[in-house]
Amino acid sequence: MRKISIFVAGLALLASCSNSPKQTEEGSAESTKSGELSGTIQLSGAFALYPMAVKWSEEFRKLHPNVTIDISGGGAGKGMTDALSGVVDIGMVSREIYPEELEKGAFPIAVVKDAVIPTINAANPELATIKKVGLTKEKAAKLWNQEFKTWGELLGTSSKLPVRVFTRSDACGAAETFAAWFGKKQEDLKATAIMGDPGVAAAVQSEKAGIGYNNIAYAYDQKTRKLFDGLAIIPIDGNENGKIDAEEDFYENTSSLIQAINDGRYPSPPARDLYLVTKGKPTKPEVVAFLDYVLTEGQQYADETGFIGLSDEKLTQALQKIK
Questions:
Q1: Is 39 exposed, middle or buried (0-12, 13-18, 19+ CB in 10 A)?
Q2: In this structure, are residues 61 and 67 in contact, taking their beta carbons and an 8 Å threshold?
Q3: Domains in the chain, ordered, with CATH?
Q4: Is the pLDDT of residue 170 over 60?
Q5: Of 177, 287, 300, 320, which is most buried by a Cβ count within 10 Å?
Q6: What's the mean pLDDT in 82-89?
């Protein structure tokens, strides 16, 4: 069985490119003799944005091979802290920016849209009923408050299968956004805490009674657009009528899910914008060029990587911010 847990080790490493150019003492780019853009860009933060950032860096370096880009995960909280402290050039943040972060100089740029989705084990014996009944805000709030002890209590059946609920141990946008859907915050979620998006996915895959939540790229294989082996989705009962209607059943692949996010059938939150954050308006030439690329040519890679490109209006606003 192929599991997303294979990806965990990769996320622990820096996604670095070679050919590092010489830097000035201030860390700004030093042009090569040909005048080609050079320098180093460091990013850290949200697991949600990691796959997209890797794709952007790969494509950007085809145009600017003398620029080195280092990317590491660690969660949205780490990305924000690293950006504000100057440890990295860009923090990857998968939640809304807090007022106190703006006061400290956070300069957020919305770059793509994503969603957090409730994931369960594909071998759950109650899977057929789960797909018919779905998950409401009220049930989610009780699940992540440890009020349901069995799947039978959750589904209104006689099942005695214990519910095993997972959440994130790291400060992250996925947990904050998912909790916001049912009126809570990450610190309110009571469950077995696991580090990272791939960690939660792996935990759910290994536990027949498991339920968690993941960003799209950690639930679906972006090459096949199908769910990773061992994972299934518990659909959201948006109209709370006790069943999943045809218009609420769109989880078969990322194409149908993304369409539902775009047309509003999937709620926001847990759908949300994702941000690249710098401390103050960026000035390093290589950072400005990278952000410009992300907001223009780079948008074409959003869909194939499991994300949703921003509207022309949002892109225009973001481009104006960095000019």
A1: buried
A2: yes
A3: 4-113+273-322 (3.40.190.10), 115-262 (3.40.190.10)
A4: yes
A5: 177
A6: 97
